[in-house]
Specification:
Number of helices: 8
Bound molecules: BIS(adenosine)-5'-tetraphosphate
Shape: globular
Largest sheet: 5 strands, parallel
Distance between the termini: 18 Å
Radius of gyration: 16 Å
CATH class of the largest domain: Alpha Beta
Helix content: 55-70%
Number of domains: 2
CATH architecture of the largest domain: 3-Layer(aba) Sandwich
Oligomer: single chain
Number of strands: 5
Strand content: 5-15%
CATH topology of the largest domain: Rossmann fold
Strand order of the largest sheet: 2-3-1-4-5
CATH superfamily of the largest domain: P-loop containing nucleotide triphosphate hydrolases
Amino acid sequence: MFNLVLFGPPGSGKGTQSENIVSNYKLDHISTGDLLRDEVSRHTPLGIEAKKFMDQGMLVPDEVVIGMISSRIDENPNSRGFIFDGFPRTRPQAEALDKLLEFKNTAIHLVLSLEVPEPELIKRLISRGETSGRSDDTEEVITRRIKEYHAKTQPVANYYYEHSKLERVVGDNSIPETFKILTKHINKYLLPVT
Ligand code: B4P
């Protein structure tokens, strides 16, 4: 089993690159952003609660997100491996993920951190907001999401650096070029399925 974390600020391309990685390496994709948006669209109690935070550009509380991840891992007992997209976003989430995986006799093997300058992030998210209809893709909320990233999520990179799992990747090239760089790192652990 191979487990990968795709890490980076809002708009760095985690969701975009995850799709390419999933189709080439046949990993199971766990995106907390997608899971939360699904809960919101179905108006579940979890979704109603999560929406209050997401609409303000704030992170959803750790216990909510960790519970969702735990059940997704359990639903895929024969997985070739997981790609965690947008999770963990806080140090307690990173510690909880390590515990969950340890319980299943596995671990995070690699963390790829997409590094993109802030003006480019803002440009991408505003442009996505023009068509996505996402309530968190407005300039005001994007600015708050980036602030939240610096305060709570960036320290997660140090956590993985301390565990010798972090690789930094330039993320402001084109989508195919960025994918090529990511595959160079992944191929050291797992080859694509042809
Ligand atoms: P997420 O859904 O995780 O997403 P994201 O931060 O918007 O961005 P991502 O990096 O995936 O960007 P994308 O590929 O789409 O989070 C949304 C919210 O959910 C959070 O703010 C939070 O409230 C909540 N949440 C999620 N996970 C949580 C957790 N673990 N704990 C607590 N709360 C959580 O790319 C963006 C745009 O850029 C796209 O339009 C794309 O086409 C474009 N793009 C990508 N790569 C490009 C490139 N190389 N060149 C040009 N454009 C590119």
